[in-house]
Each structure stands twice: as structure tokens, then as C-alpha cells.
Amino acid sequence: MDARGGMLLPGLHDHHIHLLALAAAHGSVVCGPPVVHGREELAAALRRAAATTPSGGWIRGVAYHDSVAGALTRTDLDTMVTDVPVRVQHRSGALWMLNSAAAAAVGLDDADLPAGLPADIPAGGLPGVGRGSDGRIDGRLFRLDGWLRERLPPAPAPDLAAVGRRLATFGVTGVTDATAGTGPEEVELLAAAVTRGELPQRLTLTGGPALVAPEHPRIRPGPVKIVIDEGAPVEFDALVAQVCAAWMAGRPVAVHCVTRAALVLTLAVLDAADDEPGAGHPGDRVEHGAVIPPDLVDQLVERELTVVTQPHFITERGEQYLHEVDSEDLPWLYRCAGLRRAGVAVAAGTDAPFGDPDPWRSMRAAVTRRTAAGNLIGPAEVVDAATALALYLGDAVRPGGPPRRVVPGAPADLCLLAEPGRTALRMLSAELVALTIAAGHVIADNR
Ligand SMILES: [Zn+2]
Hints:
The chain has helices at about 20-25, 40-50, 65-70, 75-80, 100-105, 145-150, 160-170, 185-195, 235-250, 260-275, 295-300, 310-325, 335-340, 360-370, 385-390, 420-425, and strands spanning about 10, 10-15, 30, 60-65, 85-90, 95-100, 130, 135-140, 170-175, 200-205, 220, 225, 255, 285-290, 305-310, 345-350, 415, 435-440, 440-445. The protein is of the alpha/beta class. It starts with 7 loop residues before the first strand and ends with a strand. The site of zinc ion (ZN) has 5 residues, from loops. Zinc ion (ZN) binds near residues 18 and 351.
């Protein structure tokens, strides 16, 4: 094959993605920035979707953020669409908001569900429903995905083939699905897609300690995902037990940490788990590491924790961070260079569908650290292009370790670029990807 001088890379590995949610997002209405900015735009987007929704169908909105129209209740949604059931997911993934048609369809008003939402919705809270001042359920369902799913009409099978094709065009030959709730049903869907070749990428699965990864040369179990839910009461001993169970099962942990407090808690939990038999596992990870203040870095180094970050959130969400995040935390958001200088292993994942699935955008954000409006956040965390690229070249087992290389004996997972190295590094763009090869087979040909 004549590569015409183009740079040949090992295939990219997205170290944190949610495949089924990404597949579901394909048929969904984006309800937040950078696509939708205000109440009017949201109403317009939902009305457009309503006009094309077949009878009996639902509108599924995703990526909502409070900057669009505040805490969204059924009263708000009813001013936008009344005749079609609408459910909108908050971009945190922790909250669904229903209009009255949707509430009626799932029997929400007759449901015996606990209350107790905190005021700060994005930060999380107890599973339950929101209530208005009149005591009526206001359409907000917090961490009730299981309850909701049982009452929804059967969803069309998620189109994982479309996801596989899209990731292939980016040069992605491997992914780590970092979904905490991956159970037998989800494993079956994913494994079937891999077996049928619809998902041509290598797949590393998180999920609980009991997860059984199917026997397949392209599927392996990854770390146990543990979610520290801000706003919910801390069940310290339960968290310690979860960590110990993972280690005993021979698996590292991947702890979801998006605030300073969550990171402090995570470190305390790991400390406590250290006293139990079977303690410690190479490959333990902090997912997101959204805020990592300098005084906690030493502990990350000591524990050899890998941080799997999302540099592109600086671009995608940076303008909101500038308004919402404590100014003392701003320099420590989604860090990269500073952590590496201190000796912390850093890798990246897109967190799609919560972030854009294009890893090249993520790399560019790691280099620029600019918000969509061009503001710089955390200049000391800027990395060079080769380092940004390497965030997606680590092995699935050692995400922040040395980049995989194109050498004899390595799997034929390759990404051929249309330009030589110097130009490619200057551009860091998905448009460069000419050919993607997974396990020796061409899975995308963009030439
Ligand atoms: Zn995630």
C-alpha cells in the first residue's frame, strides 16, 4: 500500500466512552451547548423533532445543561411540546426531565417514588423525583434510569454499527467502555456487535466486580467502575468494600471523580482499602479528574493512579466553567501537563456521548486549552501536539503508559494519516485519517 509519505500510527484507543449511550444519542435531539443555547432554541429543536415523530413515538433529548433554561420541569417542557412525550437527559447523565405527555405515558403521577432532590441538580443527589411547591411531581427523575426504562416503549435496537463506523473514521481501533451500570444485558448487546463485526474495535469493559466479559479475542474486562455521586450521602464503608471486591477479583478500579471533594474522598477510600487483604492494584484509575488541586498530586503519584481526562471539556464546557467553577479551582481543571510533570500517568477518553466522540478535537483542546469563545483555562496544563496524540495511544491496560508503537509483533491496529508527521501534528484533525485498520482489516477508508 502506498502511504504517500503519510504518518502511520497505531490505531487510537478511546480510554473512556459509553458505546450504548452513544448509539442511543444518534437518534436524539441535542438540548444543550454548543448546539442549543437558550429556551427559544430548545423549544425550536424539540418542536422540529415533534413534527417528524411518528405517532406513538417519543422525543429523546440529550446533553441538557441548566445554562439553557434553568432547572427544567414538565411545566417548562409543556410550553414547548404537549402532544408528543418528551424526555430530556441532563448532560451529567444523572437526570431525566419529562413533559406531561411523557409523565402520563409512564404513570409518573401514580408512582410511589421517593423525593429529596437537592437544589443543585448538576451535582447530583438521591435517586428520586423532583416536586413543585404544590407537592406535585414536577417531571424530574433523578437517577431513576432503571425505573424509567421499564416503562418506556421498547426502544429500537441501538445502532452500534453506526457507532463502530463513526469511530473507525476517526482512526479509533480500540475503546474502553466506562459505563458503571454495564450488566449482562449490555454485555450481550456489545459482544454481539463485536462478534458480528458491527463494532470492529477492540473492547475493554468496565462494570461491576461481577461482570463477566465474554470469551472473544477482541473483548477483555477492564477496571471496575465506581461512581462517587456528589450530593448523595457518602457511604464510606460501602465504597471501601467495592474497591476491595474489585481488587480481590483481580481488577483495578476506575473511580469517577469530578470535584475536589470527590477526589479527596476517593483517596481516603483507597487508603482505607489498603488495610484490607489483597490491597492495591496496578492500573487503578481516576476517571475525569476534573479538579486536581496541587496538594493532592503527590498522593496520585504515590498510588500510581492514572488519570483519564477529557481535555475537550475545556473547549465544550469552558465558558460555563468560567461562570460556575470556583476561581481557585480553575487552574486545576482537566489538567494534563502539570500532572505529567509531577509524574502522574495521564490518558484521555472522549466520554462520548457526553463529550464529542472525535478524539482529534480532544487532542486539539489539550494543546490550546481554549474555550469555544477563545478564553484560555489553565495555561500551565498546555501540552505539545505529540503529547496530546499520545493521550490516545496508550495501551488499554496501561492507559497513561508509553504509546503503543508500530513494530513487528504488535497487533495490526493502525491509523494511516494523509500527511507526514510534522503537518499531521500541526493539524491534529480527524480529516487527516486516510485509512483505519483493525486486526489487519480495513475498517475505514477515507481516501
Ligand atoms: Zn463517562
